[in-house]
Amino acid sequence: MTTTSPRPDLAALTERFLAVRARTDRLTRDLGPEDQTPQSMTEASPTKWHRAHTTWFFEEFVLGADPAYRPRDPAFRYLFNSYYEAVGERHPRAARGHVTRPGVAEVAAYRQDVEEQLVARLEDGTLDEALLDLVELGCHHEEQHQELLLMDVKHLLSGNVLQPVYVERAPDPDPAADPVPQRWTHVPGGVTHIGDDGSGFAFDNERPRHRVWLDDVEVGTRQVTNAEWVRFIDDGGYARPDLWLSDGWATLQATGWDAPGYWRRDDDHGWTTFTLSGRRPVVAAEPVCHISFFEADAFARWAGHRLPTEQEWEARAASGRELRGGLLDPDRCHPGLAAESTLGDVWEWTASAYVPYPGFETAPGAVGEYNGKFMNDQHVLRGASAITPPHHSRVTYRNFFPAGARWAFSGLRLAR
Amino acid sequence: MTTTSPRPDLAALTERFLAVRARTDRLTRDLGPEDQTPQSMTEASPTKWHRAHTTWFFEEFVLGADPAYRPRDPAFRYLFNSYYEAVGERHPRAARGHVTRPGVAEVAAYRQDVEEQLVARLEDGTLDEALLDLVELGCHHEEQHQELLLMDVKHLLSGNVLQPVYVERAPDPDPAADPVPQRWTHVPGGVTHIGDDGSGFAFDNERPRHRVWLDDVEVGTRQVTNAEWVRFIDDGGYARPDLWLSDGWATLQATGWDAPGYWRRDDDHGWTTFTLSGRRPVVAAEPVCHISFFEADAFARWAGHRLPTEQEWEARAASGRELRGGLLDPDRCHPGLAAESTLGDVWEWTASAYVPYPGFETAPGAVGEYNGKFMNDQHVLRGASAITPPHHSRVTYRNFFPAGARWAFSGLRLAR
Amino acid sequence: MTTTSPRPDLAALTERFLAVRARTDRLTRDLGPEDQTPQSMTEASPTKWHRAHTTWFFEEFVLGADPAYRPRDPAFRYLFNSYYEAVGERHPRAARGHVTRPGVAEVAAYRQDVEEQLVARLEDGTLDEALLDLVELGCHHEEQHQELLLMDVKHLLSGNVLQPVYVERAPDPDPAADPVPQRWTHVPGGVTHIGDDGSGFAFDNERPRHRVWLDDVEVGTRQVTNAEWVRFIDDGGYARPDLWLSDGWATLQATGWDAPGYWRRDDDHGWTTFTLSGRRPVVAAEPVCHISFFEADAFARWAGHRLPTEQEWEARAASGRELRGGLLDPDRCHPGLAAESTLGDVWEWTASAYVPYPGFETAPGAVGEYNGKFMNDQHVLRGASAITPPHHSRVTYRNFFPAGARWAFSGLRLAR
Amino acid sequence: MTTTSPRPDLAALTERFLAVRARTDRLTRDLGPEDQTPQSMTEASPTKWHRAHTTWFFEEFVLGADPAYRPRDPAFRYLFNSYYEAVGERHPRAARGHVTRPGVAEVAAYRQDVEEQLVARLEDGTLDEALLDLVELGCHHEEQHQELLLMDVKHLLSGNVLQPVYVERAPDPDPAADPVPQRWTHVPGGVTHIGDDGSGFAFDNERPRHRVWLDDVEVGTRQVTNAEWVRFIDDGGYARPDLWLSDGWATLQATGWDAPGYWRRDDDHGWTTFTLSGRRPVVAAEPVCHISFFEADAFARWAGHRLPTEQEWEARAASGRELRGGLLDPDRCHPGLAAESTLGDVWEWTASAYVPYPGFETAPGAVGEYNGKFMNDQHVLRGASAITPPHHSRVTYRNFFPAGARWAFSGLRLAR
């Protein structure tokens, strides 16, 4: 969790803190109190909760480290703790959408209050190195929640028959245009170093840097596209159990999956998909998005290839080739957040289970619950997506979701 | 569903319509958009939804009867239909809390629009008798939802650790004061007429008036009180399976019930209960509230008595004795709505299953789904509660809930 | 529970006891240990368990009343108690099929041991009147389980792709032959006596005899047939929500019901049904069987009629007209048990919820749990079925099942 | 799946085939038809089913390869296919315990019939290399089911209040005797070869042999004992969320785990555990058994160590040190099967998720579903257990179960 990099000067940290906080506000500006309150499934959270929880993180771990600190409202510790067992009892996750008070205005005031106090502490120089590390961690944590917040808003709005628009966007000029051709990058094998080298911020799960053996591999130069996915569908991809993992086939049968998340097909419009700009035609050349690990794995098998491991993925990305992994201008997905991601339009499922690196260690205290305790039955995604905040992507970054999750902006890249 | 009473003049109906609509607005005035959006369980609905659904009822069944009518938004038919199969597909009940748009302001505008159009139709005299009947039905329907709305708000707010206050109320001067003594009213048996006689408005389930045979019975002069319920608890009422119906005991074991809904006991405050005025001490002399049929039945068995049937209840009420069934000033529960109920502070579970009266008939068309299709595995409650709207109570009124429901304002009265 | 009839002489009671016991053995003779062990759903029980439980009933309530009695195995009290809370902890109902020991041979030995001891007690005259009542109750109890046992075996075998035969039966000569025509019996109304008059054995739920008011009614002279049910299916009976109770429609959608239980339709054979004699063509003139209350109710609505109440049913049956309610030779269903039922081929759903009669009282002690505690959310069936034991039917008999149950031999008769 | 080793002569293969088959019969000899029929949970299977399924495997994949082969009963293909989608529809897994026919005797006849035909095919030399490979695979497959069968029987019998004995065993002379001390084996790191080298039989998931990088590691010389586990319990191991993975803690709270599977504590006997020889005292020096991955992981964290990866485990085992991994005489667990396992008394959870080795390939045809499709959300166990068949263990063997499974004979060994 801690960074081993030299501390940036305090002014820069303060500026970063305020920039991150302002970005959250910008993202939620056009969501009314009604939009910010409900929770559309257990795995998602209300916008209002994301805004309060990221604030509570600074309050609990930075301001609260001072024994003289008086919390704004002791109940917030109960309401806005996500999963930190060491902090105590908390509001049940599945019922976050039932918390109507504090309302949006009170949450905004809470945000402002904690911000002002934190800036004061940054400016008066009373935060020690460990707490400054936690401020930096809190900024990255809030950036993670910025992406979650958009995923969750999309899921919430998608269930509304009105198919609401979160952000306006012009129609795509030619949804049927061909994608760029697929090519292959050769990545030579051998003993390879994987993981963060300590020169900048990284999450605990990216550490320690360690050696692995890799065989030679070829990795696709671009992500799999919607055009390719439609061929998979048309070839019976969702009807052939031989392509699927056993758990994946069971999930398909239980859910009725026959296309990526948010896709719908009707006679008048062909394939459409729900986006943060409402329901729109599926664009052939865009990377396929909102697929589960099960689907990515089945597609790769159908294509006669496979998913890369996370180590293969990192070795390729670290080699500097094809650093820009995506296909498209990210503002196609979200104009208000243009050019924000440098690594791709969609996260890429890998073949790797999410397990600790050799020598992995958690931070002491409650913040040690950050990543390690989720290293079970999840799968690693690498890269970034069009809604990942700017500068919040690294070649060592390990994102993770359960094999059946589809509400992340998740796609795939092939290996062979 | 239809009334057989002479039509009140149109001016009176218009006045009633506007009064009912205004009362709904008054009840929801102090609930913010956040409070009005979520749904705390499948059986409850968002405030916003109640406001829109009651409006849709008038739009669908009255305005929509005119083929020239253009709905405000065709999607509202999908969003705000509760259960009318004949009207078509509808938004899933369990996900009403995920509908963030239309928001509270748009719902208010929808209410106003439909109101204005309906008043215009009432004033221009173009509504025939059947449609005027439906306007009257719509007023009663909206009153039912006024009570549901308060039940649902209470359930929603109760889950918040802040225990919010919906309406302020002064502390009770003496929560431990003794209740008035229980006495018994003798109700003579014989062939008795039960059900609505057609002289005023009644729901379809109160019809037709018919004969039953009743034996002599004695019915309590007041409802069972909190003081008596505490004795039941202290005597192991929740630990003795011999007192309970089999389904009730299974429910108790699955839920962990050990006191009425919303009750909590702690060392500092003894028994408290959550009310629309926040968490407060249990008042000994008030009628016990938020109990299930299972608990009412077990209590009666423990007390050596039984629940009255709905016919016994009605025979007693119709005899004019003890018409005022409750114990207390209703504004104890809800000062803003003082003196509104004339029949009691809590609905009273009866021994009767909710089945059709002999000769029961449903209205033609979608509105025929009003009551009849719910006549399965529910239990009849009679009377009214402190949150029942004024004039919305009748000695023939049949309320109904499943045996395990506790979020209604439900209590009991004994018979022997 | 107690009988008020004069005690038959002991020899007759002993003879009856042995006859009932022998009939259970005869019914299970052709079921192997494998057939007798599993439980195909929570509501069903293994054959082996039925045989042991009916034995335990005599051991617990009759032999066990003697303080000197030493149980054959104390664990049997835990294993073979069905639901008597007052007797203590018991094996979980849903896991009865996991109890492999005692095996079938040990259960047979247990049966014989208890029988011999009970006969000895009957012969030495040491059982008082209350215990003799319990012996008689135990015989009726075992007869109830004889029917349950056959229901449960049918359900178990039906799930086997081999469609096993429990009892051989010749092919029906003409499955398409027309049923006898439907006619109507007029039953005059007025104050009517309902319930058992105490002149012979009856269960507690048939008591006390009491007065009700009935209006005039006409009741069908025969049960609804398979031919009529096929017309209901062909007319969209399973696709029209307006015909169904709300809970029924929800059940239909959740289960996919589109025909009675055990029915299947394929191109080669048309409609077939699974019977205790294997899968066979549906016989047009036989009463429809294995329908739920929801389906019976929907059919009656579709037919423009209704179900009789249990009081109407009893008034008609008691009048002596049409005492033989069924259509068919019962051995069509079960040749080994020919001519056993005098009241019908299938139980008949009524419109009545299963509630206590006015003045209902339970017996003291554990045996008081016999019927009363199940009087919640169940529906009354009247008559008897082709698998009801001989002499185990009365015009006052009240059978009951939940509204969605289909594994009983249940059909319907119309009223208007 | 295929072996690359030279084919043993046919006589030896025939002998092995008959020996494996005879061992299955020996294991089930003392289980009655009642014991062999039920299924105590979805993940377990009836003994009778194991016996038939292993037979079906030979029939389907070896005998059935001959187009002239006529199956004994076509329904067996439906009843006894476990999960091979390519073979067609099959009986639902969760309802295997409801299949009462064919009975135990018919299954025995089915076994004998297939055996005789297979031996005839082996002896007449008409099986090609691929089919001989499948005979060998079928033998290993049946050995896997021998272990599953014992696991499942134990689970089934454990739920019986009589706590039945599958195999008699003398009391342990001194259950409280101290275990041997824990020491550590140093395993040097570097580029290491992992996986089967093709010199003998191996499952597909052990292939291909490939290189990995390993750091130096120390691995415990013995498995964790019951004595150590009791200290973990006494130190609050089941009450401290900081020790647990998030999914593990959720599982603990949902299930109420507070000790290994089958353990029970009472005042009279202290800790006891259910074994194939009935309920017995927990023996301090035996390896802890019937723990989930979650518990193994929490224990390791509590002990200040960690689980080895499967590669570390294999590197240590392959080095020839401590090949005999267990602590105890295996016949302590199962006297009838003494000295059968050479690698340990319990399987050992590793830190590794069950994912394919680099270059993993499945066999063509239905048999290709053997292992690969289960490589999702499972965890690797290494070694063997006291109930693993003789000669059915290899240093490259990869067993796997979900993280919450406890009915395998699973324990752990520490690394640091």
From TrEMBL, chains A, B, C, D:
Stretch list, region Disordered: 25-47
Biased composition (Polar residues): 36-45
Key words, A-Z: Iron, Oxidoreductase
SUPFAM superfamilies: C-type lectin-like
Ribonucleoprotein is among the record's keywords: no
Residue stretches making up the DinB-like domain: 17-147
Transcription regulation listed as a keyword: no
This protein's pathway: Amino-acid biosynthesis; ergothioneine biosynthesis
GO biological-process terms attached to the record: ergothioneine biosynthetic process
InterPro entries linked: CTDL_fold, DinB-like, EgtB, Sulfatase_Mod_Factor_Kinase, SUMF_dom, SUMF_sf
Protein's name according to its UniProt entry: Sulfatase maturase
